[in-house]
Amino acid sequence: MAYAVTLMPGDGIGPEVVEAMRRVLEATGIAFEWDYQDLGLTAQEKQGTLLPDATLESVKRTKVGIKGPTTTPVGTGFRSVNVGLRQALELYANLRPAKTYEGVRANFDNVDLIVVRENLEDLYAGVEFDTGTSEAGLVIEAINSQSAKKVDPKAAITIKMITEEGSRRIVKFAFEYARANRRKLVTAVHKANIMKFTDGLFLRVAQEVAQEYPDIEFNDRIVDNMCMQLVQKPDLYDVLVMPNLYGDILSDLCSGMIGGLGVAPGANIGAEGAVFEPIHGSAPKYAGQNVANPTAEILTGALMLRHLGEIDAAERVEGAVARVIAEGKDVTYDLKPNRDDPTAVGTDKMADAIIAALG
Ligand code: NAD
User: Fold this and answer.
1) Percent of the chain that is helix, strand, coil (3-state, to 5)
2) For this structure, is 238 an active site residue?
3) Which residues have CB under 8 Å from 96's CB, separation 6+?
4) Architecture, CATH, for domain 1-97+264-359
5) Catalytic residue at 11?
6) Pocket lined around ligand 1, Cβ cut-off 6 Å
7) Per-residue pLDDT tens for 230-278?
8) Closest ligand 1 atom to 278 CA
């Protein structure tokens, strides 16, 4: 049976890298029924909205979407693509693997980390009060009547919100991912020594959940120490799970360690479905020129294969990408030692080489 997947090419280089990904995934022999839908500026131009209802309906129906990057129009008043998709499917887990590929210029060797970031809670839940507003005044008054420590009446406030349920499902997600993908260790990252109630709750729940997975090792690290350890001995770590803000920062740190955006895939996974997308943007200056590196989008496709339970096909795709990059011949300009190298190939030719390397 073919997998029904909503395919959203997006803007800029999106359609080119998405087409490369589609061809590679189909070459694994897995069958897909792609439902093409507009998203981003392309949708704005054709349908008058960045996130058309038809696109949302399709993702709700298929429960699996894969997208290219979208261009964010400057200015306000636009319906946010990511927020809309996230809300529609309650995408609570942001999954960002960071793996060293031989042949990609990077400052670190042997990095193979999975960052699992909670996507809906923490300081990013969006509960904020601006300095000097009457709302902030009321909140500060309430806090000061209850707390021995006082908040400055002129403070701006952002609420850090962590729930037991939100912590439990993200940590369970990390353990389930570890189990399904033959990973050995889950590390919970937190600052529970200082934020005893919020991060303390996250850590306590993580320790409880870990008991349910005796086949997978568990430890925890305080976030500042984690940063230092990641740059000193990344090979000691495997799957990292953490609240929203730390995940935002550490996932970029890990992407930087492996050589940046061109090779960094990503996924947003939720209770009602999942949407897969590379970390990079739409690189408008390269749109339509067949020069963009398709690696991140293809590795994003491999993540989707894993989500669908097609682990062998995912490993074949990742292996083929690794071989093509290591050989360094049929790769895009950004993967050549010299960016002006005339032997650099286009997006489509790099996809051809990956297909040939699937074996
Ligand atoms: P960008 O990722 O598009 O570009 C950053 C740099 O990396 C540029 O030099 C670009 O040319 C290069 N680059 C990116 N992807 C590449 C690839 N696959 N191959 C070769 N080179 C690549 O980031 P930006 O310039 O900050 O943003 C451009 C647009 O993309 C903006 O509208 C931004 O809002 C949007 N954006 C979208 C997403 C998303 O849809 N998830 C993510 C980030 C940025």
Assistant:
1) 45, 15, 40
2) no
3) 114, 115, 117, 251, 254, 255, 264, 265, 266, 267, 279
4) 3-Layer(aba) Sandwich (3.40)
5) no
6) 13, 17, 69-72, 261-262, 277, 280-283, 285-286, 292-293, 296, 334
7) 999 999 999 999 999 999 999 999 999 998 888 999 999 998 899 999 9
8) 41
